[in-house]
What does this fold into?
Amino acid sequence: MALSRHIPTTNELVFPAGVYAVGVVEQVVDFEASTREQRVQAHDRDSGLPLWAISVFDPDPEARTKVVRVKIAARTPPVLPQAPAGAQFPSVAFEDLTATPYVDTSGSRPRLAWSFRATAVRAASPKTQVPQPLHRPEQGG
It folds into this structure.
């Protein structure tokens, strides 16, 4: 199969209503290498670069998960843009965004979930047209 583990995607497909950074940039912890006394930062398997995470809010009313973490592989911590005047959170976009499916077994039933990675974060550009999410046709008989 030619499909890689990380599926390339775009901000518009993952976050059709935009997305807002609601947290600070944090180091991703490598729980296998860390001890109680010393936390070790995780590194990207492919590039070897340190991993950072940003919590983002998806305002799409159809989004099943409102807050997700996007990981960024970078030598230095990414810098979040400033929120515009009158806004509480900055609207952001991610460069080279990928999605990786996994099975989340933390709830009462396993479910398909997605992990997101990028190479950088920047201020979102003003949208001229927001793509419409795909809808399933009404089922009925």
User: Anything to note?
Assistant: Helices lie at 11-14. Confidence is low (pLDDT under 50) at residues 128-133.
